[in-house]
Amino acid sequence: MVIGVLALQGAVSEHVAMLQKLGAATQELREPQDLTGLDGIVLPGGESTTMRKLLERVDMLAPLRAQIKAGLPVFGTCAGMVLLAQPESLNALPATVQRNGFGRQKESFEADLTVTGFDTPYHGVFIRAPYYSAVEAPVTVLATVNDDRIVAARYQHLLVTAFHPELTADPRFHQLFLEMVAGK
Amino acid sequence: MAETGTTLVKRGMAEMQKGGVIMDVANVEQAKVAEASGAVAVMALERVPSDIRAAGGVARMSDPAMIEAIMAAVSIPVMAKARIGHIAEARILEAIGVDYIDESEVLTPADDKYHIDKRDYQVPFVCGCRDLGEALRRIAEGASMLRTKGEPGTGNIVEAVRHMEKVNEDIAHVHAADDNQLVTLARDFRVPLDLLRDVHETGKLPVVNFAAGGVATPADAALMMNLGADGIFVGSGIFKSDNPEKFAKAIVTATAHPTDYALIAEASKNLGAPMRGIELSTLTDDQKMSQRGI
């Protein structure tokens, strides 16, 4: 199983380390040619505006959008969750995203979350994090903060978290994604 | 229970900046150019280092109104500089809500003996370093991100190269050392033993280390990334060049693709003149900002 990690900017090495620990092969994605032979893709945390501009600059935005539309599984964390929902970016997940929804860096936080399908709480690390304020019907909400801020969700072959599983040692979200890839 | 200001969210914020360019900007217009070019953050300061050099006198924290205007104008993170050891400037920047504070040798130091105790701030700090000793002392004081000092405002990359190589050589040395040498090494480096032991075991710093101080061209940015920098700070380079928009974009491209030389060549074409630059040997020791706050 080969998982591509978008490597234009952001917390790339952390995702690569976590995926490899779980037995997946990884490939860093920097140019359109890298988008071949992949079973799934991780869009890491970072600055979503920077990533979108870099995707456009190397002509990677359109092919990536096409592959996702064709069914390639994607796990987006933080910036990745933003890119998947933004109409001007990947336009793949029907949700309304609030960038930096929790505020500036001094409002960044850690909190234990109740996640649908997990037996015990999941410790989320939120850094200038986004959230979804609304989602359309087939999207499954997996976790919220303050009841109405959606911070983890699943939609068809897409998985998103507003927090950073790659910064903790808890592999459950990466495992869930690899199961989604395997069961595709 | 949500907890803010933790070590993980402070260091994690810097992890999210990896592979990106942080640009010095002096006004809202420049901040917008930086954001449009793909910068991961901007550093708001009234005068870029080369102007500070030219102006002389005491360089201080920027006007909070100017910083707030930039914070309102862009959606990427905004950083700002406090003088070394100036607790009040740092608390003011925290009160405004900047995303990162640079306790910076570019400004005139306020305390020639102690740095700020950065541990109990909600806002994370970045500090400069020339070697592993400085790096670990700043981390011990609570820095969540490091950068080379380089020699700011010179447009000369040689000091940043020297500092990046020195940190990496020191790390390799500590990593390869025997366990029984660590106490003595901690004494020689003038650093806490637990931090040195951490480097010994992992072979790397516990926080990211960007390149700063003299980056003037896309090729300079690529050079520093190839030497192991996690990302790039560009100060005077962009807005002292002939074509800032093009220049900013080219540096972002070079930082994201540091080994794609055909792409960097394309991005570097017809950029116009970069900042003029200063040969280091023409600076006296007291003109070198990198000698401050060691």
Descriptive terms for the model:
A: alpha/beta, Rossmann fold, seven-stranded mixed β-sheet, two-stranded antiparallel ribbon, 5 helices, 29% strand, globular, B: 294 residues, alpha/beta
Protein model, in words:
Chain B: Pfam families: SOR_SNZ. Chain B: In the presence of PdxT, forms a dodecamer of heterodimers. Chain B: Pathway: Cofactor biosynthesis; pyridoxal 5'-phosphate biosynthesis. Chain B: InterPro entries: Aldolase_TIM (IPR013785), PdxS/SNZ (IPR001852), PdxS/SNZ_N (IPR033755), RibuloseP-bd_barrel (IPR011060). Chain B: Belongs to the PdxS/SNZ family. The complex is a heterodimer of chains A (184) and B (294). Chain A is an alpha/beta fold. Chain A has helices spanning 12-21, 48-57, 61-69, 79-85, 172-182; strands at residues 2-6, 25-29, 40-43, 74-77, 95-98, 109-113, 122-126, 131-135, 140-145, 149-155, 158-161. In chain A, a hairpin with a 2-residue loop joins β10 and β11 (158-161). Chain A starts with a strand and ends with a helix. In chain B, α5 links the parallel β4 (78-83) and β5. An 8-stranded parallel beta sheet of chain B has the order 8-7-6-5-4-3-2-9. The longest helix of chain B has 19 residues, at 158-176. Chain B has helices at residues 7-15, 28-37, 49-55, 64-73, 87-96, 132-140, 158-176, 182-189, 193-202, 218-226, 236-239, 244-256, 261-268, and strands at 3-4, 21-25, 41-44, 78-83, 100-104, 125-129, 145-148, 209-210, 232-234. Chain B is globular.
